Write a sequence for this structure.
């Protein structure tokens, strides 16, 4: 043992260094976020609970029932059921998402040519039953009204989900499914 | 009539004894009440200090800044189910925590909290504390044995070995103080410090003080010497099988033992309820601060040091623990006694 090591041992140099470190941490600011009281700011582009976009003009769902989201969905959690209406028009009867299976990848939003589905910034929707987390069309539409109505939804569609098109309609060059009458 | 049955002098003596007993009971009640309150908030203080040292917040939810957390914890403990292992040795199992806590509590009686406030001002105060603190290990050991569980048993074994080893180092470290003060009475030790030129024995007895601090941490089974209750190896050590109220007794005993060790450090090394004369010379207004406040501040500082070490140093290995105790602390303490004795003789 060299003299230096001996001195280090006798005067507890290493332990004193450690004590100095913990003491400096004592006076630093804690990183804890007091969750229900304080919340972490939500980053723009957050992928939370699902919503079906309500068309601000017609007040109805934008979905046409093409089934691209269903095809894209990696966890196969979207179910779309369509029926034939007047003049052979396709009517989306049921649009359902099994939220418990969703992995929040956002592919459905990217796939949708009409910008009809979106992910909101809401992440606090835990529940005690599976039924409450099985999203029907009405629930999804009300989610849009609750969390994304107005400027926010537009901002999200412009900035994150469909950066190629300024208007929320279909880009002209894109091959999409269209109803017979349009 | 009473006068006919007992002579008046005897009656006077009886009344005097009665008054003395009454005063003693009031003192005990005060010390016990304040002591238990301190234990409750020592847990809160510990969680807060360690939390902030780990850049967390510690308890925050119960009451403002979690101030009512100890009360919530206490209530929870009392309403817990009292589980006793089927193969436990039941009478001994019941006795263990009681012995442990009683042994810690009794020590409160000889600690001088202020210049004229001590429950029992006995001449062998220091020795008494050692004796009773040594009794506490019986509680630990028999509860570890009676639980009939390997973890509890190993915890109990480790604890008895550790406390016995470090008691020697601690006793030897305090011999220096005894030599300097010339007394085992804790009140006299404080008074001797007040009159000495150093004001507190931590300065001339710095070596003994360091040995004492290390031994005190080991004696109360605290990190980094918390091998008897090493969570990662022994679940909870000797009280693994205890629940609810009995667990609470161990908990109380452990924290009271910490407070006792802090008081002992304050009394023997830091000057008890007094402050050194050179401080009052510079800042004369400090003379008017009551002694109990200095005493409590010293205890709090020492308890804070306990937590500070816990947040910093990892647990030692068992052979390291024994090596520190027997190969370093005891020889150093013996050398300190030698030097102190020589200085005392020569000067």
């Amino acid at each position: 043992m060299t003299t230096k090591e001996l001195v280090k041992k006798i005067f507890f140099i290493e332990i004193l260094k450690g004590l100095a470190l913990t003491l400096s941490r004592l006076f630093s600011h804690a990183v804890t976020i007091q969750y229900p009281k304080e919340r972490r700011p939500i980053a723009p582009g957050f992928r939370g609970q699902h919503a079906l976009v309500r068309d601000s003009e017609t007040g109805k769902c934008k979905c046409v029932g093409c089934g691209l989201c269903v095809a894209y969905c990696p966890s196969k959690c979207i179910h779309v059921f369509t029926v034939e209406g007047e003049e052979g028009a396709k009517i989306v009867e049921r649009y359902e998402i099994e939220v418990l299976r969703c992995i929040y990848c956002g592919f459905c939003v990217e796939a949708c040519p009409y910008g009809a589905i979106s992910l909101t910034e809401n992440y606090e929707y835990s529940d005690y039953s599976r039924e409450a987390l099985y999203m029907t069309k009405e629930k999804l539409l009300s989610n849009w009204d609750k969390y994304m109505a107005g400027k926010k939804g537009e901002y999200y569609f412009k900035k994150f989900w469909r950066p190629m098109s300024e208007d929320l309609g279909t880009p002209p060059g894109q091959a999409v499914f269209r109803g017979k009458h349009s | 009539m009473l006068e006919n049955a007992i002579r008046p002098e005897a009656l006077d003596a009886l009344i005097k004894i009665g008054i003395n007993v009454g005063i003693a009971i009031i003192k005990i009640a005060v010390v016990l009440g304040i002591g238990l309150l301190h234990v409750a908030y020592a847990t809160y203080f510990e969680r807060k200090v360690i939390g902030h040292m780990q850049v967390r917040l510690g308890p925050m939810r119960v009451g403002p800044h979690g101030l009512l957390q100890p009360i919530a914890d206490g209530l929870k403990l009392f309403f817990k189910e009292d589980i006793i292992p089927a193969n436990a040795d039941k009478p001994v199992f019941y006795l263990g925590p009681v012995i442990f806590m009683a042994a810690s509590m009794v020590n409160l009686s000889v600690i001088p909290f202020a210049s004229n406030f001590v429950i029992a001002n006995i001449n062998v105060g220091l020795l008494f504390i050692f004796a009773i603190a040594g009794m506490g290990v019986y509680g630990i050991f028999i509860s570890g044995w009676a639980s009939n569980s390997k973890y509890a048993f190993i915890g109990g074994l480790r604890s008895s070995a550790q406390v016995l080893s470090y008691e020697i180092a601690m006793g030897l470290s305090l011999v220096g103080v005894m030599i300097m003060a010339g007394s085992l009475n804790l009140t006299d030790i404080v008074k001797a410090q007040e009159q000495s030129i150093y004001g507190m024995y931590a300065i001339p007895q710095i070596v003994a003080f360091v040995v004492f601090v290390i031994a005190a941490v080991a004696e109360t089974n605290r990190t980094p010497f918390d091998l008897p209750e090493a969570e990662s190896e022994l679940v909870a050590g000797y009280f693994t099988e205890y629940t609810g109220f009995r667990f609470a007794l161990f908990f109380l005993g452990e924290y009271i033992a910490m407070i006792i060790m802090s008081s002992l450090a304050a009394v023997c090394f830091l000057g008890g309820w007094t402050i050194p004369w050179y401080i009052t010379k510079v800042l004369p207004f400090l003379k008017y601060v009551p002694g109990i406040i200095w005493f409590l501040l010293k205890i709090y500082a020492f308890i804070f040091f306990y937590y500070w070490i816990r947040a910093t140093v990892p647990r030692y290995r068992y052979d390291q623990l024994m090596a520190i105790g027997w190969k370093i602390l005891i020889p150093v303490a013996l050398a300190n006694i030698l030097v102190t004795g020589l200085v005392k003789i020569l000067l």
User: Anything to note?
Assistant: Chain B touches chain A through 14 residues (CB under 8 Å). The longest helix of chain B spans residues 8-53. The CA atoms of residues 273 and 294 of chain B lie 5 Å apart. The mean pLDDT of chain B is 85.
